[in-house]
Amino acid sequence: MQRKSNAYQLSVLAVLTAIVLLQNLVPFLGYIPLPGLSITTIHVTVIIAAVILGPRDGAIIGGVWGLVDWIRAFVAPTSPLAPIVFTNPLVSVLPRVLVGLVAGLIFLHWAKRPHPTVGMVLAGVVGSLVNTILVLGLIGVLYSHAAAGFYQINLAKLMPYLLTIVGTNGIPEAILAGILTPIIATPLLRFKRRHP
């Protein structure tokens, strides 16, 4: 029984890793480009991995996303800002690992309660916001002068500008994750319970 469970875990981990790789490599599948930044959809896959497989595997999938993002910043950037900031693993890798970890921990907290769907929605919303707030926050802290020059705005106006991006990109991404996570994760969890 334990071997079956491990095989299931590894199979799902492999499939979700492949999906994250595809989302990173196929245009418009993982990033919707906008001037200066991209709207991200990859976080939904990481959050679903965390809900189905747990925080550790969610962090692994998030790490795969971050490593691919880090490599792409050098060879095929997704935005003009990427070579400036995403070549730093603190900005490209760490927040993505934490997306999976935090989303998985939130769902674990809610999983045993009467309405686990609430936990899935919260995991989706909070996991998405972890990505947005950490990435933009680290850009603001570590690259305020470079980012201000790139966006051609006054340094004093950079943080309000980044907060505007949280509102225009981060909130829709969080709503998307909050909606899609229970829709996709619920049947996968049912399947997992039937075939332990």
Automatic annotation (TrEMBL):
InterPro entries, alphabetized: ECF_trnsprt_substrate-spec (IPR024529)
Organism domain of life: Bacteria
UniProt keyword annotations, A-Z: Membrane, Transmembrane, Transmembrane helix
Transmembrane segments: 7-26, 32-53, 60-81, 93-111, 118-141, 161-185
Protein name (database record): ECF transporter S component [Lactobacillus pentosus]
GO molecular function: transmembrane transporter activity
Organism whose genome encodes this protein: Lactiplantibacillus mudanjiangensis
